[in-house]
Amino acid sequence: MSWEFRRNLWIQLTPHRLIATPLVLGLLFLASIQASVLPIAPETLFWLFAGFWGTRRAADSIMEEVIGATWQSQRMAAIGAWSMTWGKLFGATAFAWYGAALSWIAFAATIALDVHTRPWMRLPSPGELLSMLVFALLAQSVSMLVALIQMRRRRRGRQFALGLAQIAGLSTFVPFFFVTNTFEPIRRSTIWWYGFPYPTQAFLLFAATAFFAWALLAVHQLMRAELQYRDATWRLPLFALFLMGFITGFIPRPYLLPFPSAVALAANGVAMLSLFYVTLLAAPGEPIALLRWARALRQGSWRLVGELMPPWLPVGVITLAVGLMALRESIAIDLWVQSLGPQSITIGRHVTSWIAALMVFAARDALVVVLFAVGRRPERADINAVIALAILHGVVPVVLTAFGFAAQAGLTAPLPGVSSPLTVAAAALQTAALGLALAWRFARLRPAPSTAG
Amino acid sequence: MIAVEHLLFDYPGVRALDDVGFAIAKGTITALVGPNGAGKTTLLRCMAALDQPHGGRIAIEGVDIFDDPRRAHRFIGYLPDFYGLYDTLTVRQCLTYAAGSQGVASGAIAPAVDRAAGRFGIADLLARRAGDLSRGQRQRLAIAQATVHAPRLLLLDEPAAGLDPQARADLSQTLLTLSREGVTIVVSSHILTELEDYCTDLLILSRGKLVEQRRFRAVDGRGLVAIQLAAPWPGLLALLSAQPDVTVVSHAPDKALCRMREDAASLAALLAALVAAGAPVARFGPDQENIQELYRARVGGAGGGVGVGARP
User: Fold this and answer.
1) Is B209–A450 a contact, with Cβ atoms under 8 angstroms apart?
2) By the CB < 8 Å criterion, does A451 face chain B?
3) Do both A318 and A216 map to the same domain?
4) How would CATH label the architecture of B222-286?
5) Does residue A94 or residue B1 have the better pLDDT?
6) Do A220 and A125 share a structural domain?
């Protein structure tokens, strides 16, 4: 048994808790039987224990080590990355699972006793039960992943970090409710994927399982980095490719001739761009690591280049590839639109310029984030970068439009409809200026020998 | 045992370790001293393979710790300056987890826990929760956790902070015992007088540079003892030469410098022999440089200068 799992069990499943929890839950159900009303749906109880409390515990399994100053000892432990991952994921949530299981036992007993029945009161089918388990695991692992990311960013506010991790985890739990009997029509509906129909419940279970596996792989990858394994980043680009394959399955191809890949490229472009921004903001703000990576690149130390590579870079390359394919498709569509008549030309050019602007502005935004990461407060780089990007993408265009400069609103953000070659040129200028600022900042980061320590 | 070569470590805009290099012999106790911000904690974290430096190399028993940090962790024990304990676990559970997580074999965990608890005086606290311990008891538990897997290299960052005088004396004795068992120890501390009691070697860091490396006493407990007489006494050399386990390093009619064991019994025996023979002893004791004076000379002025003055 993993020592991390064992330690978590010691903390989570104390004799006190093991005895008190069934007593409290038993009393609750006895009271509900007495009142001939079951106050809470079983899915909600499960959500409260395995979902709400489970995601909190999963995130806290990381944060409490940092706050409690025990993480350095764990980093030096002989426990392997997998053992540490599952030891924390299943150990820290052991009490949440215990509570969830007890709730279901009490609920099953209520039905078996046939004390009072309601139309919605039934035991879950094996499929539903499995879905609940997998969605809860997905939510917990995503919560743990976000906590790990924040820990690597040296975020200090525990409650903020926990809240963010929990929100991220619980958001993945939402689809589960669509397969419960509360949403009977959706549960009985069909999802078409790569031209084949699948029952929604079965498809969501498949999707949740796949994404749980990816979340676990991501946690494991970050855990390996923390535990000093020396690895290159390869799982994130693979996940990007998986995500594109998953999304492409939903595109109904036969209806989109003569450009069958246009919608798939658009959907995948949006997905990759989103993933690029997420990884950009989630990357640890370690300016010295960036300097070391740049030096390894110059020296051709490829092992170190792979180990220190910012995680957003390979995703950026994939995003660029998708963007270039979309640009080629857009030009083809543009030529096709031109052939229809002169009145349609403007629309086509806007789309092409917009795609180009999206790519160049993404490069600019990457430099904005890196510039904050190498700034004075790298631990706040993501928050400061989000504020800066919100100003560039939201405030400036709104103000320009409000003052009657609607045509110039796209100078700081890739806005559909107003993008033009001028927008792309503006984005390129901003990118170049930021590149120069970054080079200047990097030069200041390199300390002169024998400076004060 | 430990070879540190050309170590460079940067924080944004600040060079925390600047071309630091030294060697530490097996079984020694090395005091790592320097003003706040000198780079002591950074150096210890690098030696614990927790932080990777910008440049340079650290080899412990021939293993490059940055090539294989996880292997290096198997024989390193590290107590950081800000450490944490699992407050809801008992002392026994804390030690058991520390041993198990450090790879101690299942059958050897219970004896390792008992040995560590006994060594650091917390054997009677094994059933207590860590959160209920006093500051000094917590410190002892933390050191016991760092040593429960019998590391060959022990890195301690301010281990005496929070300990009362008796506990500090006990810690000194425990470190000497560990050293005699072959454990190599590096201790960072601001309490210079206590370091003199048990350290064999000294490293002084200032502004990220190593400004002094010096040996104070031999690993086997043999050190230099100075004898100063009130007046010349012709029988001094003959008497000293006749003593077992005493080597005369230098002598004059009214003084001598010997290499011998520095424990109280050996010192008392030699002094008694001198007095019994009629030697007019004026001063007698270990000829040891004072760490505080050396520290002030190297660091106390305008930064203490740069350059390593190694004297093994």
Assistant:
1) yes
2) yes
3) no
4) 2-Layer Sandwich (3.30)
5) A94
6) yes
| Amino acid type, A141 | S
Domain B2-218+290-300 is in which class? alpha beta
User: How many whole angstroms from its chain centre is CA A187?
Assistant: 25
| A251 and A198, same domain (yes or no) | no
For residues A300 and A323, membership in a common domain is answered with: yes
Q: Is A449 in contact with B15 (Cβ distance < 8 A)?
A: yes
**A212 and A297 housed in the same domain:** no
- Note whether residue A236 is domain-resident: no
Distances (CA, A) of B143 to A7, A403, B72, B121, B187: 19, 67, 19, 11, 12
Pairing verdict, β B201-206 and B29-33:
parallel
Of B210, B192, B148, B139, give the one whose Cα is nearest residue B170.
Answer: B139
The predicted pLDDT at position B303 comes to 45
Give, for all 312 residues of chain B, the pLDDT tens digit: 889 998 888 887 778 898 899 999 888 999 999 888 889 999 999 999 888 888 888 998 888 888 888 888 888 999 998 889 999 999 999 999 999 999 899 899 999 999 999 988 899 999 999 999 988 889 889 999 999 999 999 999 988 877 788 888 888 888 888 888 889 999 998 878 778 778 888 899 988 899 888 877 766 667 778 899 999 998 899 999 888 888 888 888 889 988 888 778 888 999 999 999 999 999 998 776 677 777 877 776 544 333 333 332
Bond preceding residue A22 cis, omega within 30 of 0: no
Q: Under a CB-based contact definition with an 8 Å cutoff, are residues A84 and A4 in contact?
A: yes
Residue of B101, B139, B153, B308 to mutate when probing chain A, most A C-beta within 10 A: B101
Nearest chain B residue (CA) to A4: B101
Give the Cα separation of B183 and B25 in Å (integer).
10
Q: Is A452 on the interface with B (CB under 8 A)?
A: yes
For residue A451, is pLDDT > 70?
no
Question: Would you place residue A37 in the very low, low, confident or very high pLDDT band (cuts 50, 70, 90)?
Answer: low
Tell me which of A203, A229, A255 is where a domain ends: A229
Same domain, A334 and A206: no
Residue A238 falls inside a structural domain: no
* Residue A430 lies inside a defined structural domain of this protein: yes
Which residues from B are below 8 Å from A72, CB to CB?
50, 78, 80, 83
Is the pLDDT confidence value at A180 over 90? Answer: no
What are the residues of chain B with a beta carbon less than 8 Å away from any beta carbon of chain A?
10-19, 37-39, 48-50, 54, 69-70, 73-74, 76, 78, 80, 82-89, 93, 97-98, 100-103, 145, 207-209, 306
> Which residue in the set A11, A72, A451 is minimally distant from B50, CB to CB?
A72
Same domain, A215 and A318: no
Test B49 with A228 for CB contact under 8 angstroms. Answer: yes
The token duo for A208 is: 């949740």
The Cβ of residue B36 has, within 10 Å, a number of other Cβ atoms equal to 8
Residue A453 lies in a domain: no
Phi-psi region of B160 (alpha: psi -120 to 50; beta: other; left: phi over 0): alpha
Q: Cβ contact (<8 Å) for B103 and A288? A: no
pLDDT for res B174? 84
Nearest CA in chain A to B35: A453
- A7 and B89: CB-CB below 8 Å? yes
Task: Test A77 with B101 for CB contact under 8 angstroms.
Answer: yes
Same domain, A158 and A277: no
Range of the domain at A150: 1-229
**Closest B-chain CA to A443:** B13
Instruction: Give kind and range of the element (H or E) at residue B33.
Output: strand B29-33
Into how many domains does chain A fold?
Answer: 2
Interchain CB distance below 8 Å, A78 and B102: yes
Q: What are the structural domain ranges in chain B?
A: 2-218+290-300, 222-286
